[in-house]
Amino acid sequence: MTTHFEPTEGAPDGRFPSPAFCVFSNRFLAVIVAIIAVRIKHGAVLANNTAPLHSFTPAAISNTISSWSNYAALRYVSFPVQTIFKSSKIIAVMMMGKFLKGTTYPYTQHVEAFLITCGVALFSLAMKSPKEETETQLTGLIFLLLYISFDSFTSQWQDKVYTQYGRANVDPYQMMLGINSSAIVFTTAGLIFSGDFPLVWEFLLVNPVVLKYNIITAITSASGQLCIFYTIREFGPVIFTLIMIIRQMLSICISAAYFHHDITIKAFFGMTMVFGVLFYQARRKYYAKLNKQPATQSAPVLSAAGSK
Q1: Cβ distance 175 to 233 under 8 Å?
Q2: Deepest of 33, 167, 216, 287, by most Cβ within 10 A of its Cβ?
Q3: What's the predicted TM-score (pTM) here?
């Protein structure tokens, strides 16, 4: 979306003209992968569908809007602004869980989310040294707000579907098929009504290499969805968001090591803050689980004493 290619009449600036087409291609391949996976596991595409198709539609709409907003925002916002917004996703997910499902989070988890947000933002900003920085515009901020809001809604709604119809009755492949089947309807309609199809066709004829990039993006998106739906089903949306944050930081570290970039003191401090909070979370949950065990183990003893 930010690379300049050969200009066309519909895209005189040389940048890919349609964020919606990127979303469409990702959803198209995801539907194919999901159909194959469901067919292999269940023997038929529509077999054992406990959750009706309309239950996936809200997540499909929100997922489409969030993906489109994410692509569109790249044109209008600088990297620091993108980083601040995306680093705060865990807070948005928790707020959406409260709004959508009435989920309550303890005070300590809110503090931990805030510290993780600050740490990730500090780490990412300290590691980035762009050659050309995009100027932030109001349009880009609106797109980022849409992305954060609807992306948070998507993961929480998926968790709601798993809870409502039973996690044993809806597997990640069915979730992937349900959401992408609905999403591809909306993206196709959007491409038709916006008139983007002719613009994309013209751009691809002049810049055929863009099709290769589009296919690679679609493949990585479809394969990533399999892991995403499984993680949300087994661990919930907040843990999934934490995993994505860690993945982002590790990818930057690997890139720095591979290209021999220095990790600044600020970046190291931000990374230490994030992993320190995560270590504290793990330690707190371990001791909470440990404290529950004596009560559970003593129950049979009390019962036996009473029987005497």
Answers
A1: yes
A2: 33
A3: 0.67
